Amino acid sequence: KAIPSPKSGKPPKVAPDGMSLVQDWFASQGWTPWEFQLQAWAAQRAGRSGLIQVPTGSGKTYAAYGGALATLIDSIVAGEAATRRILYITPLRAVSRDVELALKAPLADLASKVPGLKRVRVESRTGDTKSSLRAKQKESLPDVLVTTPESLSLMLTWERSGELFAGLRCVIVDEWHELISSKRGTQVELGLARLRRLAPGLVTWGLSATLPNANEAAAALAGVPKAGEAPVIVRAQIDRPVVVTTLLPERVEAFPWAGHLGLTMLSAVIASLAPAGTPPEELVSTLFFTNTRSQAELWHRALTFQCPHWESVIALHHGSIDRAERERVELGIKTGSIRLVIATSSLDLGVDFAPVERVYHVGSPKGIGRVIQRAGRASHRPGASCSIICVPTHGLELIEIDAVRRAIAAGEVEPRTPLDRPLDVLAQHLVTCSLGSGSTPDDLFEEVRTAWSYRNLTREEFDWTLALVTHGGKTLGAYPNYRRVVPDELGLLRVPVKRIAHQHRMNIGTIVSEAVLDLRYVSGRRLGTIEENFVTFLKPGQYFRFAGKALQFVGIHDLSALVRPAKSKTSFTPKWVGTKLPISESLSLGIRRTLALARDLSPKNAKTFSRELAAARPILEAQARLSRLPDEDETLVELTRTRDGTHLFVYPFDGRLVHAGLAAVLALRLTRLSPTTFTTAVNDYGLELLTSEKLELDALITPELFTTLGLAADIEASMDMAEVAKLPFREIARVSGLIQQNHPGARTSGRQQQASAGLLYDVFREYDPGNLLLEQARREVVERHFEQSRLARSLTRIAASRITVVRTERPTPLGFPLIVARTSAELSGEPLAERLRKMVEQWEER
Predict the structure, then answer these.
(1) DSSP assignment of 131-146
(2) Helices (H), 388-506
(3) Residues facing residue 314 across a β-bridge
(4) Is 124 left (phi over 0), alpha (psi -120 to 50) or beta?
(5) Are 689 and 645 in contact (CB under 8 A)?
(6) Fewer beta carbons within 10 angstroms: which end of the chain, N or C?
């Protein structure tokens, strides 16, 4: 109780308590804090770091911000203006404005109770921030700053960064599950390691979707913990069920192939979206997800063509479309003026689209976490269920959807793991730190090792990377451009040349763009970006579709592809590389389980089938009749002879990247046992090896064929590693600063970057074969293109399973899509669909 003043007899004023004010503000909004929010606030106030894992739309932002805000209020009341700052990192600069408004809201409402809050600055700093505001922030950082990983690294290059960040108290990292397993996540880890040195006592909190490896994810965020200081994991028992339904095709063929349903589902989709005669403005607000940009373009064209009266309320959104157009679409979703958006992963996360009530997904879900993430865009409210309607593009995807639903019910989600010591990101960070507050090599080594991804970094690796940025390493010492960092008279690492400093700041970041050109109208207006490979094969006057518009190609000028508006009805769309995602490991397991459940096709057991399995019954019955349905602990191998030769089919259900590596390794090992030449084909379900010779392969299919012994050597022997490794080396060279993507007033093309990177690669390979960046390139190519660690797990599982070899008279429903994949790559004057139809008819007649 307050003691009355002896002069007035009135109790003295009691300073407001920050935490109480935050809870009062919640009450003023009609909210009651969730238990997980109270837990997070208490942990923050106790100086702990941690990770918040709750369903989308349940209040993660205020759970992370509330405790920091309470501390900020307390510091204002105590007059500690220099020690109250909060940094909020988001992977999407497009959502920074929304986040900024959310963080401002309680400050504006509480200003009447704490007058000092009126002076609190809440601002954003991204690539879109006005130059005048950026200049102001360089002199004095705001109290609460919303930024991106790239902008954080850029701020760390400021000479006064040590002074400006010394008062930082809390860092909040949004969508950590999206960052953690990428080089952007590694960049954030290194940035946080630097901030912890500049601001001792800093707490770090991450917001994440559900991850099974939450402890590792939290450690990667909070840094290598000291004894007894493990980060806090905050979870919540909020029932926000994900309801997965399927738009079933009228007929499912026994021999499916990828994409053969495709737009044949268009009429069913339109009927599902709205009953006939529904006015456009009464369409239920819907996000319509596809896996690729090309697929999004095609569906947008099909829907607008079939339903022209929807044109005013339908839009397209993907990463190659110009930012201004994407922002227009996002605003339209929020205001309700746009009712249906065909999108890719560009709308997976970040923006709170409260009006959205329904989500569709076309094609394979690819992963359990992806389905949950996209479903969470609907009914974005705490405790509200979210639904997603899946539209299969071939019959086997019905089995995938059933597997996804079962996995969600069992709480099975894919883990996301941090990268292991990428030296290209470290090289960039060393230059960043040398531009900023500076450090000695010894201090910097110890600092970097507090980042989780570099906890096992050796001093030899660090010194090698430091030599790369100080004098170009063993082979580039004769070139001044590679002498980027030198120690000053105090032993602190510095960047002495202004031109190199400017160049580094222009190229900070780990996102390496594809070989793309700006796409512009001849008038100059920008439409977005388009890949060089696609433009190369266009002829002047040719029509194609982009961003939902029909365009006529004019030509290339100043690294821009020029076009004119057209009235053509063409459906020809660009193809973007790197869009064929493999199914995840968790989904692979789910598919094997679902097939095992479906092995009993008796009428009694069939009554227990889901709608998807019931619809897929023609496929299941044909597979069981012609071969067999594999059990969960069984690997099915089929041997078939056709006029093309001997076919070997293997079905691990482990995703196309694993199967690509497995096909290469098996082909190599089989040719050692029986010399021949194989043609390969892979998809997410299995692989095919085809030889024109009539070989007896039965005796060669043994567990020893799938051994992991010598796997790394077999992978290298099965491909031209020297050439293939050049592809990831372009990214490594760009991130490490060996080649520059941006120059003052200019930008190098993707082909120029690839040529420069290829030249460096050849120099290193000839004169410095032990170069650690070469080793990183080899490691990345086998991991990225073959998922080596997952391939090893797959081989181990197959070798330990029952390997069942079945001789079949013709390809089965599981093998048919593989034949399609191989056949579609062959030249023929006969349309593919017609050729496949004849093949199926011949098999059915037999």
Answers:
(1) HHHHHHHHHS--SEEE
(2) 396-410, 423-435, 441-448, 459-471, 498-506
(3) 340
(4) beta
(5) no
(6) N
**Tokens read off for 51:** 């990770």
480 close to 495: Cβ distance less than 8 angstroms: no
Which helix (H) or strand (E) is 268 found in, with range?
A: helix 266-273
DSSP string for residues in 355-372: T--EEEEES----HHHHH
- Among 703, 678, 673, 710, smallest CA distance to 691 is for 678
The torsion region of residue 386 among left (phi > 0), alpha (psi -120 to 50) and beta comes to: beta
Report the candidate in 788, 795, 789 with the shortest Cα–Cα distance to residue 708. Answer: 795
Distance CA 201, CA 68 (A): 13
Give a three-class secondary structure readout of 497-565. Answer: CHHHHHHHHHCCCCCCCCCEEEEEECCCCEEEEEEHHHHHCCCCCCEEEECCEEEEEEEEECCEEEEEE
- Alpha-carbon distances of 769 from 475, 779, 836, rounded to whole Å: 11, 15, 49
Asked if 549 and 297 count as a contact pair (C-beta separation under 8 A), the reply is no
pLDDT in tens, 630-681: 999 999 999 999 888 999 999 999 998 899 889 999 999 999 998 888 988 9
End-to-end CA distance of the chain: 93
Report the distance separating Cα 643 and Cα 685, nearest Å: 24
Backbone angles phi, psi at 819, to 5 degrees: -65, -40
CB 89 within 8 A of CB 173: yes
CA dihedral 814, 815, 817, 822 (to 10 degrees): 160
Residue found by looking up tokens 């400050």 in the block: 107
pLDDT of residue 228: 62
Which residue, chain included where needed, has tokens 């990247």?
A: 657
How far out from the chain centre does Cα 669 lie? 34
Query: pLDDT tens digits, residue range 320-348?
Result: 888 788 889 988 988 899 999 999 888 87
CA atoms within 13 A on the CB side of 275: 0
Q: For tokens 């960070």, what's the residue?
A: 429
Contacts of 730 (CB under 8 A, 6+ apart): 512, 739, 753, 754, 757, 758
User: How many Å apart are CA 426 and CA 420, to the nearest integer?
Assistant: 11
The strand pair at 560-565 and 516-521 is best described as parallel
CB burial of residue 117 (10 Å; 0-12, 13-18, 19+): buried
Closest CA to 314 of 342, 289, 354: 342
829: confidence class by pLDDT, cuts 50, 70, 90: very low
pLDDT band at 303 (very low <50, low <70, confident <90, very high): very high
**Per-residue b or e along 230-245, where b marks 16 or more CB atoms closer than 10 Å to that residue's CB:** ebbbbebeeebebebe
274, 286 contact by CB (below 8 A):
no
pLDDT value for 2: 40
CA angle 430, 434, 435 (to 5 degrees): 120
Three-class SS string for 24-93?
Answer: HHHHHCCCCCCHHHHHHHHHHHCCCCEEEECCCCCCHHHHHHHHHHHHHHHHHHCCCHHHCEEEEECCCH
Give the whole-angstrom CA distance, residue 621 versus residue 609: 14
Strand 340-343 to strand 242-246: parallel, antiparallel, or no bridges (unpaired)? unpaired
Q: Which uninterrupted H or E stretch holds 758? A: helix 750-767
Residue 98's pLDDT band, with cuts at 50, 70 and 90, is confident
Q: What is the pLDDT of residue 209?
A: 82
Percent of the chain whose predicted confidence (pLDDT) is above 90: 54
**Dihedral angle sign, alpha carbons of residues 793, 796, 801, 802:** positive
pLDDT value for 570: 75
806, two tokens = 């079945």
